[in-house]
Amino acid sequence: MSGGLPVEIERTHLVSCIPNNLDSGQHLRQWYIPISSIEIDSNISISGLELVEHIPDEWLDGVREALDQDDPTIRIRLNGEYAILCIKGPTIGISRIEFEWEIKPYSILEELLESSDWPLVEKKRWDIQSEDGHIWNLDRFLGLNEGLWLAEIELKNENTTYHCPKWVGIDVSNDPRFTSKRLAELPFSIMNNSPPLPKSKC
């Protein structure tokens, strides 16, 4: 935590080969909301639909600061069961403030998102535990990002050491092309100097 605010610390890697014996995974859709569509007071609404009834007082200044940055990250993720609103602060190193809320009603929100032209990333996700106990999120991107696989790991602090399984490739944490927000706007299919595709199995 940073001054009582939630902090996300993660690294992102390319995938060198696709692990064997993957199940069907979890289907995720993520929309990136323009700041012009956000309404914030002590609550948060998007296009007139209230998503967060009350922002905790200790979060309010941090949320406003995150939204005041240039090109803020405002994401809604649907997984078929529930929806998560996420507002992210600026990245410093591999850390950033991250506010999250589970939001309802799902069906109305899904209809609003599907009818919008907001940037979208779609992917399949698997959670895989490595030998050192860390959990990796393995993502296979779909749609205009088909062919791209990424692996993410959340850490307790920036100095935490971790072991990379054999299917984890080079670290691209500092390459802005591989953030999901950037991939929603400039997908893998039109990326310059795109990385090689992972080997089929390992």
What layout of secondary structure does this protein have?
Blueprint (H helix, E strand, L loop, with lengths): L6 E9 L10 E7 L5 E3 L3 E3 L2 E4 L4 H12 L4 E6 L4 E6 L6 E9 L2 H9 L5 E10 L5 E7 L7 E6 L13 E4 L8 H6 L17
Antiparallel strand pairs: 1-8, 1-11, 1-12, 2-6, 2-9, 3-4, 4-5, 6-7, 7-8, 9-10, 10-11
Task: Please explain how this structure is put together.
The chain has helices at 57-68, 106-114, 180-185; strands spanning 7-15, 26-32, 38-40, 44-46, 49-52, 73-78, 83-88, 95-103, 120-129, 135-141, 149-154, 168-171. The chain is globular, with a radius of gyration of 17 Å. The model has no long low-confidence stretch (mean pLDDT 94). It has two domains: 7-27 and 123-190, Hypothetical Protein Pfu-838710-001 (Beta Barrel), CATH 2.40.320.10; 28-114, no CATH class. It is mostly beta strands. The strands form two sheets. Strands 1-8-7-6-2-9-10-11 form an eight-stranded antiparallel β-barrel. A three-stranded antiparallel β-sheet has the order 3-4-5, with no helix packed on it.
